[in-house]
């Protein structure tokens, strides 16, 4: 789908996930995040929104993933307007592949698909208020903090609701 360079001798590929990737995706999710889900949940997301469930592959190994759900929400940017939005449910990259631009590539590609395939005019997500790496990534890609959700996580931590508009393709 999209090949990007890490070093001149090393590349990663961003492509749509298939069912055979789900165990690797679940493994990355368990290593990287306290919010874990059942196989059935991953499978339902993959079957429902297959075009915006992406994996990054480095030398045949799954190094990261992003999965999204399409929702009708009250717009975060236009008052009193119901809009179709992409909800980034989860994104993660294995520790040994971080700071190489993989999450940026996953999120940029997912946003393009949310706009062009699923006709979303916005994208949003929740992130722990302490998760500086992820917040920096989202801000770098144009997301803004639009709300703070008290005790969003089971351990009592708050979440920032972050969102950005998705411009129509040229
Ligand atoms: N410290 C500060 N800023 C960071 C860090 C860090 N450790 N990591 C990434 N960033 C910011 C930087 O601005 C970076 O740009 P730069 O490298 O040019 O400075 C930018 O994000 C893009 O970095 P990428 O290389 O594209 O991100 P990476 O592939 O390393 O993945 C991620 C980032 C997904 C947050 C990774 O650290 C991870 O898997 N963390 C654990 C899981 C997690 O927190 N996921 C997000 C939860 S919220 C949700 O899923 C909706
Ligand atoms: Zn199936």
Report a brief summary of the structure.
The chain is of the alpha+beta class. 26% of the residues lie in helices and 38% in strands.
- The CATH architecture term is 3-Layer(aba) Sandwich
* SSE string, helices as H and strands as E: EEHHEEEHEHEE
Small molecules in complex: acetyl coenzyme *A, zinc ion
How many strands appear in the DSSP assignment? Answer: 8
Treating each run of at least 4 consecutive H or I residues as one helix, how many helices? 4
Give an overview in words.
Strands 1-2-3-4-5-6-8-7 form an 8-stranded mixed sheet, sandwiched between helices. It has one domain: Aminopeptidase (3-Layer(aba) Sandwich). It is built from 4 helices and 8 strands; from the N terminus they run ββααβββαβαββ. A hairpin with a 2-residue loop joins strand 3 (54-58) and strand 4. With 170 residues, it is α+β, with helices and mostly antiparallel strands. Helix content is 26%, strand content 38%. It is globular and about 50 Å long. The site of zinc ion has 3 residues, from helix 2. Acetyl coenzyme *A (ACO) is lined by residues 32-33, 88, 90-93, 98-104, 125, 127, 131-134, 136-137, 140.
Give the topology, please.
Elements: E1 2-7, E2 10-16, H1 22-32, H2 39-48, E3 54-58, E4 61-74, E5 82-93, H3 102-116, E6 122-128, H4 132-140, E7 144-149, E8 159-165
Parallel strand pairs: 5-6
Antiparallel strand pairs: 1-2, 2-3, 3-4, 4-5, 6-8, 7-8
Residues 32-33, 88, 90-93, 98-104, 125, 127, 131-134, 136-137, 140 line the site of acetyl coenzyme *A (ACO).
């Amino acid at each position: 789908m999209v090949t990007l360079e890490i070093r001149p001798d090393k590349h990663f590929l961003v492509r749509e996930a298939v069912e055979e990737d789900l165990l690797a995706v679940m493994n990355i999710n368990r290593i990287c995040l306290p919010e874990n889900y059942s196989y059935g949940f991953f499978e339902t997301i993959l079957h429902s929104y297959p075009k915006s469930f992406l994996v990054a592959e480095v030398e045949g190994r799954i190094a990261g993933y992003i999965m999204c759900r399409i929702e009708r929400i009250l717009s975060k940017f236009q008052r009193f307007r119901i809009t179709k939005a992409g909800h980034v449910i989860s994104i993660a990259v294995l520790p040994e592949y971080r700071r190489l631009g993989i999450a940026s590539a996953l999120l940029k590609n997912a946003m393009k698909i949310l706009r062009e395939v699923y006709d979303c005019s916005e994208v949003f997500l929740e992130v722990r208020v302490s998760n500086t790496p992820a917040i920096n990534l989202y801000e770098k890609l144009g997301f803004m903090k639009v709300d703070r959700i008290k005790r969003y996580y089971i351990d009592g931590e708050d979440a920032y609701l972050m969102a950005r508009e998705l411009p129509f393709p040229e």
